[in-house]
Specification:
5 strands; about 25% helix; about 25% strand
């Protein structure tokens, strides 16, 4: 017989300031909830292969790679560019290049973020 065996038969103390919450209501607080409306749909959409994913020919890909290399070298100066990419349809943005990271597959122009792998056209302005 252990020293705490007498505590096993005890009932937990009742709170004085408010009534005890029923078990089914306590369980509800641990159910999943959507704090960011539409976030789950956006994640699912991103994970599905889309027909509008770009497939550039080799020459276009080489030109884009050369331009990206030059832009990476000049990134501190925030060069002005125009970018067109496919993401839920064709998107275009023009302005200062704020972020460019091939490792993350991300770029940002004028506050608009895009995947580098979805770019179909880019030029310095």
């Amino acid at each position: 017989m252990g020293i705490y065996d007498d505590m096993l038969a005890m009932t937990p103390p009742e709170p004085r300031s408010h009534p005890r919450m029923p078990r089914e209501q306590r369980a509800k607080q641990f159910m999943p909830f959507a704090t960011l409306k539409g976030y789950g749909d956006a994640v699912r959409e991103r994970s599905v292969f889309r027909e509008d994913d770009p497939t550039l020919d080799e020459d276009s890909r080489d030109r884009l790679d050369q331009l990206l290399g030059g832009l990476l070298a000049d990134l501190a100066e925030h060069p002005t560019v125009s970018v067109t990419w496919l993401e839920g349809g064709q998107q275009t943005a023009a302005g200062k290049l704020e972020h460019l990271s091939p490792a993350e597959d991300l770029g940002r122009v004028a506050g608009r973020t895009f995947r580098l792998s979805s770019v179909i056209a880019m030029e310095r302005v």
